[in-house]
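pasting for the record
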Amino acid sequence: MKSCDSCIHYQICDKQKIANHRVSKSVCKHFKDDTFIFDLIPLSINTHLWKISSFHKDGPKATEFIVKNFRTVGEKHDIQVEVQAVGTPLRYWVAYHDFFKTKEEAEKELERRKREKGNV
């Protein structure tokens, strides 16, 4: 079992004041191992990601984005990425889980969604 000092909340948590406080996910609902962030962020600046975008005049399609920055937010430390669509100057923040690592993965998911809706 990990101790509080290996939690990313250690500096701001009241529980860490208890000497050698041992925690687990079942004991502390806010415990997050401070090593998990490095395992969960499988990208770097200028990584190319793909997202299914529905703002195209021809309907949804796989769109390529470039990662410009990333951060974790909220109590669950969800990963957000600041992205820029290839060929545009606009940048905005989006949840990382909305993206695919390859164009092929995005297109496969797009086809699955089309079949599910009966559009194919």
